[in-house]
Structure formats: C-alpha cells, structure tokens
Design a protein that fits this description.
The protein is mainly beta. The chain has 1 helix and 4 strands, in the order H-E-E-E-E.
Length: 94
C-alpha cells in the first residue's frame, strides 16, 4: 500500500489568507492520525516571518492547533513535510 501517492494536494490546499505568511505542509492529526495538507502561519510553528519557507524542514516546525473534523474539534497537528513544491504556484491553479 503506497501512502499518499494518489492524493491531490493542491485541491486539499485552502486559499491563502491575505496579509499573512503561510506555508503549505503535510501534517498528521495527533487525535485520529489522518494526514492532510494544512496552511500554517510561520509564527504558529515557531518560525520567524522572515524565514525562507523553501529552506524549512518539517523537523524545524512545532505542532500547531487546528480543527479536525473527524475529531470534532481543534486538535494538534504535527508537521511531517513542508510542501515546498506548492510554494511557488499559489493562486495559479489552472
Ligand atoms: Zn483528527
């Protein structure tokens, strides 16, 4: 079983919030263990807003709190990968 091979990360990704520096990450919910693409603000994962997102590793990021629907509330999500490939084409889904 190959995990994640058939996922459409771009469609999972929500729209960016204006005026905020956010990066797309694969994150795992500590409650139910599912992995989803999440957009996180740099300060929410213990990074300075001035850092280069493309240079970040998932291990640099701290867990962040976000709503998980199967868990029916806000849970902690642990970053497992920085989706740097999605950084360059934000807002250009053709
Ligand atoms: Zn969950």
């Amino acid at each position: 079983m190959s995990v994640g091979a058939d996922r459409d990360r771009e469609s999972e990704l929500s729209r960016p919030t204006a005026g905020q520096v956010e990066i797309p990450v694969d994150a795992i919910c500590v409650g139910c263990g599912r992995i989803r693409v999440k957009r996180v603000r740099l300060e929410n994962v213990d990074q300075k807003p001035t850092v280069d997102p493309a240079a970040l590793e998932a291990t640099d990021l701290t867990p962040f709190k976000r709503v998980c629907h199967p868990c029916e509330g806000a849970t902690w999500w642990k970053p497992v990968a920085v989706l740097s490939g999605l950084l360059d084409n934000e807002g250009e889904s053709a």
